[in-house]
Amino acid sequence: MISDIGLLAAIRSRMQWLQTRQGVLAENVANADTPGYRARDLAAFEVPRRNAVPTPAQIVPTRTDPAHLVSAGDDPRWRHEKVATFEVRPTGNSVVLEEEMMKVTQTQVDYQLATSLYSRSIGLLKTALGRRA
């Protein structure tokens, strides 16, 4: 069954998460002028685990020689710091439309990517099975 393929299940889960996030962001934009409304967002997406395969974050390269290249995680110039905004209007509303629209756009791009990956994966499976699409 196609649902048993881990990659496709992960892509499908990601697409569902992106759909839900788009709804939450739409609520934020719709309530941009509602007094006391607090902007919301979903927790970061995590791939559902079926097997105990280590994720890239769990695999850490070891620098055994000073001549080896420094990984991006070791170099302070490449550290990503997430800056939380605390902008609140006098009415108590914390929705920043510019930030919300950036999130909406990124979510849309991510959804298009996931859809493309899913479609291409299905196409590859059909080709492998000898059923041209």
Automatic annotation (TrEMBL):
Gene Ontology CC annotations of this record: bacterial-type flagellum basal body, rod
Domain of life, source organism: Bacteria
Subcellular location: Bacterial flagellum basal body
Pfam families hit by this protein: Flg_bb_rod
Domain Flagellar basal body rod protein N-terminal stretches: 12-38
A biological process term (GO) from this entry: bacterial-type flagellum-dependent cell motility
Keywords of the record: Bacterial flagellum, Cell projection, Cilium, Flagellum
Subunit structure: The basal body constitutes a major portion of the flagellar organelle and consists of a number of rings mounted on a central rod. In Gram-negative bacteria, at least four rings, L, P, S and M are present, whereas Gram-positive bacteria lack the L and P rings. The rod consists of about 26 subunits of FlgG in the distal portion, and FlgB, FlgC and FlgF build up the proximal portion of the rod with about 6 subunits each.
Protein role: Structural component of flagellum, the bacterial motility apparatus. Part of the rod structure of flagellar basal body.
Name of the protein this chain belongs to: Flagellar basal body rod protein FlgB
Source organism: Tepidamorphus gemmatus
Higher taxonomy: Bacteria, Pseudomonadati, Pseudomonadota, Alphaproteobacteria, Hyphomicrobiales
